[in-house]
Amino acid sequence: MSKTKNDKNFWKSLKEYYNDPDVLKSKSNEFADGVTEDFNPSELSPISRRNFLALLTASAAFTATACSDYQDKGEIIAYNKRPEGIIPGKPNFYASTCTGCSNNCGVLVKTREGRPIKLDGNPDNPINKGKICATGEASILNLYDPDRLSGAHKNRRKVDWKSIDSEIIDILNKAVSDGKEIALITKTVTSPTYKNLLTELKTKYKTLKIYSYEMFDDLNKRNAWEKSYGSRNYPSLKLDEANIILSLESDFLGKEGNYIEAARKYAGKRDVMQSIEFNRLYVVEGMMSLTGMNADYRFRLRPDYQKDFVLSLITEITNKNGKSLYSKSYSGKDFCTKYGFDQEKYSTLVQDLLNNQGKSIVLAGNSLSEETHILVNYLNDVLENSALYDNNSINNELIKNSSKADWKELESKIKNKTVSVVINAEANPVFDLSASFINEVETKISLVDSENETSSVSNYVLPINHALESWGDYNSRSNLISLQQPVINPIFDTRQKENIILTWVNGHSEAYSDDAYHQYLKNSFKENVYSRLNTPAAFDRFWFASLHDGAVQLNNETSANQFNYSAVSDIKVENKNNSEYLVHLQKSYYIGDGKFAGNGWLQEMPHPVTKVAWDNFAAVSPLTAKSLDVEMNDLVEVTTDGKNVKLPVIVQPGMADNLIAVELGYGREVISDSGKNTGTNANILLNGKGYFFDVNVSKADGTYKLASTQEHHSLDDTFVKDFHRKRKIIQEGTVKEYQKDNRFLDKYKYENFDITKGPEYTGLKWGMAIDLNKCLSCGTCVTACNVENNVPVVGKDQVLTGREMQWIRLDRYYSGTPEEPIVSNQPMLCQHCDNAPCENVCPVNATNHSTDGLNQMAYNRCVGTRYCANNCPYKVRRFNFYNFRDHFANAYYQNDVSALAHNPEVTVRSRGVMEKCTFCVQRIMEAREDAIRENKPLTGDMVTTACQQACPTDAIVFGDSNDKNSKLYKYRNHELGYHVLEVLNVRPNVTYLAKLRNTHSEEV
Amino acid sequence: MKIQNRRRFFKNITLGAIGISVLNSFPVKLIAGNRKGNVNSVSKVKIHNQAVKRSR
User: Fold this and answer.
1) Is A797 helix (H, G, I), strand (E, B) or coil?
2) Which chain B residues contact residue A68 at CB under 8 A?
3) CATH number for the A153-217+399-513 domain, one of 3.20.20.150, 3.40.50.720, 3.90.1150.10, 3.40.50.740?
4) pLDDT at residue A856 greater than cutoff 80
5) Which overall architecture, per CATH, does domain A723-752+765-997 show?
6) Closest among A387, A384, A363 to A375, alpha carbons compared
7) A973 vs chain B: nearest CA distance in angstroms?
8) pLDDT (tens digit, 9 = 90+) per residue, A742-786?
9) More exposed terminus of chain A, fewer Cβ within 10 Å: N or C?
């Protein structure tokens, strides 16, 4: 074949043209010379690329099989035989009682498909009126705690209930026949039926003695009331009628007494919508408390000087109103000089008390001494403030708590081996009271729901039902019986504590029945309540109606007693020598005495004052920190009576000097993984001398990082000082300023304008208003939001990097000086801006604005660029950096039981997705469905957000801002209403009402 | 795919499978699986039918 034009022979070089053998060789070699110096091509794997890819795919397939988390999650099948009373998708509500503390607030339990998912206050309960505290809200997580005990155990080995009951009954009988004491340790008893049961147990086992305690009890108050008025039961207070409230170390809005009731009554007189005649709150305290943050006037004073303060007040007041029956005198001037008090503010206080006799109240904190309480009772009597005592509603004491002497006696009896059995009924004395002597007892029986320090040393551990699985009744107030009913059958193999005790009373294990205590309670109710009420209704009908309502009101008016003046005659002036340092041991705001230390939501709740989560600390004033040469996160060693404890420091503005404030309940060692390594156990400092006593303090080596959710801005740093005022984030005034000119905020208002015409919202438009006069920053809204919206717990390490997931945060700003700061609080949540900066920047349009004014979030569209969070000026967007359920504490909340706590109406977000407040869109949707079904229009008052429902002071208002008749409309257009960062023209839908402080001047 | 050394190939496969099974059996989540053993005994929620419901 001849070569044509297309058959040309192409060559790249002359060598190739002349068929150089080197060229031919290089064509066959894969690598040119010099390239294979570091390896030998003939030693390479002979595997071809095809085979390599085949092997790689096979390995990947193996790994995928191993790594897949395929578990049969079951099938969703519609009810074939629907349980009575349950409509899938519709919640049921049951009235019950919260047992988080001895206030026993009435609750409404929301259940879905037979399991409780949320606790709210019972509106029919006249004490708490539809509100509960943050601890009550979060207590639902304890029901679904995967570390709850299941099955009776003897010496760590599981045994059946019947044999353990028989054994225990034999042990108790033997103790009686040997004449040895049986010590039953319990917390404060507020249930009359449980009290009767314990009495019957005492009758059956004659050597039984009951020891009851409460970590932060009101023993001093009760003893003082007995000496002052002859009765141990003190009345509740009509705080809603008080013009002047003086709180002496009494955090009555935060953690003392029934603070939910107190908050409602206090805020009732700080409602601008009702009246501008506000009450005035004076607080005299050492450590800054929640009550102190809300004070109109605040004085710093160590708790050991309070007695002298009250004496000086008595002297000043009785000198002026001539009612002196107290012989000692201690002038106010001497007091102010000695303790560095502002004389002018002191005189203002005295004058205010005198001007409001019969309409003021002086409150003494539970930690103050008995003598101080007696003096305060006398002061109230002198001021005729007994008019504010509500004798219809007395704080009952069913069983007197054991004194320090009783515990000492128990300890010596145990050492002398005259106590052979200790029964721990839902208490934890080994941790709470550092009662390690209990270990020496021969037989220790614990009735607890989860493992604690006491049950870990017990021979017999009998797991008990959670409060939501139990029957009960509570009589903490004389005019009310609050009933408790189970809303779910026991999830684990547990029994109700009272049922177990009833079996022991009956004397043989066959006597047990699941329903036994229910019947016992019913009979007790019939005898003690129904028979006294003289109601025409048949008993069964009345019983069911009472369970439906959750509470039965009793007419129990007690007549007021006269003050016993001999009680004060022996009290001397303290005139204490200034000790170097004083420690004040206090109750935690959220985890109680350590009972809720394993509850992730509560541990993650930032402390209302210091904003520290997951730890306790030693709070000191700036001056004390300087003298000890410590800063935040340094360690101090607190020593007393040979015991010492190292604590991390937090520098707290507004604290009294030379005072160390420490919260107890932390540092528990026998607790679920969610509560491990949280804080330091300071309970060992308790020495029987009360809750504040002299100590030695010194700087210790090392540091400890505290997770604080709020930056501690230096109050002296010119750049950030008062920036919240400069940027109008916080706008405040005084009552006098407002009375003079009710439009005083107008000069700060900013007129925004748009050059384009934005969308018009003519129909329903959701909005929210928060009244900062009523907001106490208690944190109940935050916890309620967590429960309602399945917000995950992230753990301390994530909080340290600022990744806490709570949708609402409570911002706290200081102004003034570090010694006498003024505190401003502001709840901050998604403002649902009409001109949202987050919506424009989402690359996948996962966040957009609805036609009814909501800033919506489509979780499955979100790819996690976080541009929206970057753009948000309020920093309210939260990103799921991990699947936190999986990440926190070794996947502690990633299991079948914890998942039962989730609200089925709200998506559980996974990793990589942005979330934020949705204005409870699931509640809006539910209301919309109801409205459509009932063929009526959806209105703003048909929806209540979780935070609004939970707020004890009703500071949050939600509704339709286009409805001129709605409450929200009035708030949005109020002269005190303002928007945060208004100048940015984002047009937020959350209006804040400026706080008015009730001071004597026009300036804050 | 050509297996050069059949004995070595099967030995590797077997060791790999044993290794993955051992790792999976740990209570700590290394590769996959649930942590809590106790909760697997909860089969379903038992409704309490003696409680009195609130009327809507």
Assistant:
1) helix
2) 32
3) 3.40.50.740
4) yes
5) 2-Layer Sandwich (3.30)
6) A363
7) 34
8) 999 988 888 888 888 888 899 999 999 999 999 999 999 999 999
9) N
